[in-house]
Amino acid sequence: MARVTQAVKAVVAGPACCPTGLNTPLERDTAEALAQLLKAVADPARLQLLALIKSSPGAEACVCDLTEPLGLSQPTVSHHLKVLTDAGILLRERRGIWSWFSIVPERLAELAAVIN
Amino acid sequence: MARVTQAVKAVVAGPACCPTGLNTPLERDTAEALAQLLKAVADPARLQLLALIKSSPGAEACVCDLTEPLGLSQPTVSHHLKVLTDAGILLRERRGIWSWFSIVPERLAELAAVIN
DNA sequence: GGCGTTCATTGACAGTCGTCTATACGTTGA
DNA sequence: TCAACGTATAGACGACTGTCAATGAACGCC
């Protein structure tokens, strides 16, 4: 994950100085790290999760609020949340029994910057 | 594909009036269309292709220029180009023997707008 | 017309991914 | 300490995806 973060930052900020986006050829390693991050978002269930969390009060939600709207089983939702968390897009915080998830906006902004 | 384009536009522009991005819950259909578009980009080879084309003179390139830098077979590169073209991200133009590909910037901008 | 070149398509195969059921884990309250 | 609840993990299975070798189709040139 740290490896991915670094690679994305490199693409956004440029190897040394100036922002590049996709304006410069991509090394295979960098491309793979970037693709891995994009794959985390490129799933309908995970997009729905992001939208649900982002539009929840306080921009956070617990699993119990997310399972039913998605129409998927609890383990499946948990799996998707893990993928997003591992990618650094979501933040997990335990409060007693519940796991609360919030979005890391900088991470999504990085992605958007790369694409453009 | 037209269906995908419409769904993405809906997410960018909002159901009726105002831009939403992911700030509003996503219908499954919309999420699937969006995911399909993201999947097209979420591949290392295709990211490299986009970067190569974008950084080529005139922001266009033919297959013969793309196969070697990627280190993949010609059919595989052709496959990836088809995926990007079908997603509306690339534009294909035949000139005699050669196929030239160029990027559709608005399409990438739409994607970036949705993510943010 | 025949041939070489460039690209697209087909078919096959291994690997990955999304989903589920079953089960384990951790926390809370009695 | 134990039971109940919310969540995470493991294992299995079908579907999709990326890749290649082989083949086909379109075009320009001799």
Comma- or semicolon-separated keywords:
homodimer; 116 residues; 6 helices; alpha+beta; Arc Repressor Mutant, subunit A; DNA-binding
Q: How would you describe the overall organization of this protein?
A:
Chain A is α+β, with helices and mostly antiparallel strands. Chain A has two domains: 2-40 and 106-115, no CATH class; 41-104, Orthogonal Bundle (Arc Repressor Mutant, subunit A), CATH 1.10.10. The first copy, chain A, has six helices and three strands; from the N terminus they run αααβααββα. The relative contact order of chain A is 0.17. Chains A and B meet through helix 2, helix 3 and helix 6 of A and helix 2, helix 3 and helix 6 of B. The structure holds a DNA duplex (30 and 30 nucleotides).
How many helices of chain A?
A: 6
CATH superfamily of the largest domain in chain A: Winged helix-like DNA-binding domain superfamily/Winged helix DNA-binding domain
Tell me the number of strands of chain A.
3
Order of helices and strands of chain A: HHHEHHEEH
The helix fraction of chain A, in percent, is 55-70%
Estimate what percentage of residues of chain A fall within beta strands. Answer: 5-15%
User: Do you know the CATH topology of the largest domain in chain A?
Assistant: Arc Repressor Mutant, subunit A
